[in-house]
Amino acid sequence: MKRLLNKKMNNNYSIYGINNSFNLLSNNKNFLINKIFIDKNSKVQSNTKLMNIIELQKNCVEYIDHNSFQKKYNYKHSQGIVIEFTGNLYSDLYSLDISEENICFIIADQLSDPQNLGQILRTCECAGINGIILPKHNSIHLTNSVLQVSQGAFMYINVFIETNLKSSMNYLKSKGFWIIGVENGIESDQWYNMDYKGKIAIVIGSEGTGIRRLIKDSCDFLTTIDMKGKINSLNVTAAVSTILFERQRQLSN
Questions:
Q1: CA pair distance 51, 62, nearest whole angstrom
Q2: What is the Cα 95 distance to its own chain's centre?
């Protein structure tokens, strides 16, 4: 892996576990691997596929005895490997090629839970989404916790940080996008009635308050997922999964 040219954009991160480590080491992005810590007593060394990639980074590898590793990295599912790396995990929305016929972004308005963002990244990657847009302020961004939950998805999907979501939405509209807000309300149509083909951006709100009024007013359409149970709210990650795989169904028909 090459050293990044734009040092100002670099941040230090760490991930752990076999799947995350393999995804990180096998990708072609310009991440700088600072250190690979391996528990001498772990099963990592029996994973031939991973060890072949680690061999290419052998100058960064440090083997640690089990007790020392547990004291240094007391993670529940580390599987005996932790990687510290430096990289720029964010993309530039305005330089991205958005000329495809079917392209989709998620706009996450002020999410606060790293678990939710990590799961949404993973779902977006699995569903073939082109990127996720986050506001610069009052929002969770890419932290070690988010990266871990994403299980490597952060390496394969564009993540954008935008100062003004409304301006970003207007930019997308100028490029032929329709903006769909996921929001409960009498003015919202059912999620399965929406057309998710073509260029679209799907807006989701924060875990507690939903989409802010200014952002909601900028949406072209509003959709909702009708609840049939005793509670009237769906976790934001479940809502995103529902919408995105309905989009996949429509694109495959």
A1: 13
A2: 19
**31: containing domain:** 7-87
Residue 97 and residue 207 in one domain: yes
The answer to whether residues 126 and 162 belong to one domain is yes
Position 243: which residue type? I
Query: Quick check: 73 and 38 in contact, CB under 8 A?
Result: no
Task: Indicate if 31 and 127 belong to the same structural domain.
Answer: no
Helices (H), the chain: 18-26, 48-55, 66-72, 114-126, 144-150, 165-174, 213-217, 236-252
Instruction: For 113-161, write each residue's pLDDT tens digit.
Output: 999 999 999 999 999 999 999 999 999 999 999 999 999 999 999 999 9
Question: Following DSSP, what letter does each residue of 55-108 receive, concatenated?
Answer: HTTGGGEEEE-HHHHHHH---TT-TTEEEEEEE-----GGGS----SSEEEEEE
2 in any annotated domain: no
